[in-house]
Known about the structure:
Blueprint: H1 11-27, E1 36-44, E2 49-56, E3 59-63, E4 72-77, H2 78-86, H3 91-102, H4 111-114, E5 131-140, E6 143-151, E7 162-167, H5 168-176, H6 181-186, E8 190-194, H7 196-210
Parallel strand pairs: 1-4, 5-7
Antiparallel strand pairs: 1-2, 2-3, 4-6, 5-6, 7-8
Amino acid sequence: MPELPAAPITACRFLEDFVPGAFAELTGGRRLPGTDLELGFVLLGEGGGEWVYRVRDGALEVVRAGRNDATLTVIQSVDDWRGALWEGRGGIFGRTVTSLLSGAAVGRLSEAARERAPSFEALEPIRALEGLVRVVLAGDLGGDWSLEIKLGPGAIPDEPSATLTIEAEDAAAIERGELDALQAFMAGRIEVMGDMTLVLQMQAVLMQALR
């Protein structure tokens, strides 16, 4: 798989050059019959923009265009996006989003994650959901790290339908297998404000796609 450059590159180069290259290597140049999906990615701040990944019958096209018809859209600040890739920020959440965007191809991911390519078809049920989920990793290297996930097509709401907050240390413990996610939730170490049902529905679809 292609190695992520040691020094940060622009969002444009990452999303328009690196990700398609990683996808091509992931699939070995083969088309994936039946795959039909649009994923949106919005970066906020200097050097940001709006991109759409269109997967049609296994072929990937990347365009700088509106994402209103995307099945799923990831929204994030440029600083937090860069932090996940080159500064070790974002923990399991940063790695999960990167996995969805680049087929688990970024060089800094674990070997186990590299072997787990996402199932794009399994993301299709998200089109039936509607809402915006904000994920906050609190106290990540001295400052909160966050992202938002717009479920289904349509305009991005001004406010999230639900906010999920977890301390960075607890997220790392869950990833290492030292803390059970359900037990952490029941103990109040994972805080969910807002539409709990939407969070659970999103989680079920993402787990299916990344299993």
